[in-house]
TrEMBL record:
Binds 1 Mg(2+) ion per subunit. The lineage of its organism: Bacteria, Pseudomonadati, Pseudomonadota, Alphaproteobacteria, Hyphomicrobiales. SUPFAM superfamilies: Enolase C-terminal domain-like (SSF51604), Enolase N-terminal domain-like (SSF54826). Mg(2+) binds at residues 175, 201, 224. It comes from Rhizobium deserti. It comes from the Bacteria. This is Dipeptide epimerase.
Length: 327
């Protein structure tokens, strides 16, 4: 067995500008990891996130530093100890999963016990803007069954009301990206309940979210920035009803599978989410999301250009990946 690892930075333009409470971007910068063994090639993609202290060059270097270990036959189990959770480990872990699928002729869905995968509904994300702009976009997407709207300002009431009026039938997830405060939390939650919002994601900053345990949660609340790996779950049971599992946080599909199982055991609802990346980043998450309560895997729909053999989307339905893409 002779294995070789390569890693590169790639850039994919976003269709327009994607804005959340922390800022805007017009392109997705990703690190792609390729592991080859004889004629077989496995790939994984990660999206470094500055909110977690990850820079694109540093993550690239972390992935490249695994080349010698991969050449020596590094397993996925060994990888969990060799690298910390985060984007870099995600790229290597998913490349190893893909390589094993290609080498053995087994689909990754079968390997993780998700054989018979089916298409499912993913949320479609509306980026943060003023109420009028968000309502206009909501009207364009009003036939989608599940919308996710980016909020996180001192006064999001007008935005929530405008989007609900523009999309009266859609289920709506509100993602505040840590942008609310203890002063406006109760008011915003009351409005969300009135407007039949299905889920509120990360309203308060990670590490400063204890107020969620002291108030009536009129709408279920989902942890995102507050939860990264399995060990985080036990500390969140008094303040969150759901958790958003992202491969770039957990450090790959291996940890994400364990985290999902434990989250379900503890009684959390589960969302499988993503950063803004290509179909290669979404593919393993699509398998992970087969029995999830919510899926937010619309990354490729936000791009102006995706990879070849990308995921198939039919409206809000996302289909399992073809073998030519991943797994």
């Amino acid at each position: 067995m002779s294995r070789h690892l390569e890693a590169t930075i790639e850039t994919f333009p976003i269709a327009g500008v994607f804005t959340i409470s922390r800022g805007s971007k017009s392109q997705a910068e990703v690190v792609t990891c390729t592991i080859s063994e004889d004629r077989f090639v496995g790939r994984g993609e990660c999206v470094p996130y500055r909110r977690y202290g990850e820079g694109i060059e540093a993550v690239l270097a972390e992935v490249q530093a695994m080349a010698g270990f991969v050449a020596g036959g590094l397993t996925r189990a060994e990888l969990q100890d060799r690298m910390k959770p985060g984007a870099a480990r995600n790229a290597v872990d998913c490349a190893l999963w893909d390589l094993e699928a290609k080498r053995t002729g087994r689909r990754a869905a079968e390997m993780i016990g998700a054989a018979g995968t089916q298409p499912f509904v993913t949320a479609f994300t509306l980026s943060l803007g003023d109420a009028e702009a968000m309502a206009a976009e909501a009207r364009r997407q009003a036939e989608r069954p599940l919308l996710k709207i980016k909020l996180g300002t001192e006064d999001d009431e007008a935005r929530m009301r405008a989007v609900r009026a523009a999309a009266p039938i859609s289920r709506i997830i509100v993602d505040a990206n840590e942008g609310w405060t203890e002063n406006n939390l109760v008011r915003h939650m009351e409005i969300a309940a009135e407007l039949r919002i299905s889920l509120i994601e990360q309203p308060l900053p990670a590490g400063a979210d204890a107020a969620l345990a002291r108030i009536p949660r009129l709408v279920p609340v989902c942890a995102d920035e507050s939860v990264h790996a399995t060990e985080d779950l036990h500390h969140l049971r008094d303040r969150y009803d759901a958790v958003n599992i992202k491969l770039d946080k957990t450090g790959g599909l291996t940890e994400a599978l364990a985290m999902k199982a434990e989250a379900k055991r503890l009684g959390f609802s589960v969302m499988i989410g993503c950063m803004v990346g290509t179909s290669l980043a979404m593919a393993p998450a699509v398998l992970l999301a087969q029995d999830a309560d919510y899926a937010d895997l619309d990354g490729p729909l936000l791009l102006a250009r995706d990879r070849p053999d990308g995921l198939r989307y039919d409206g809000s339905l996302v289909y399992p990946p073809a073998a030519a893409l991943w797994g």
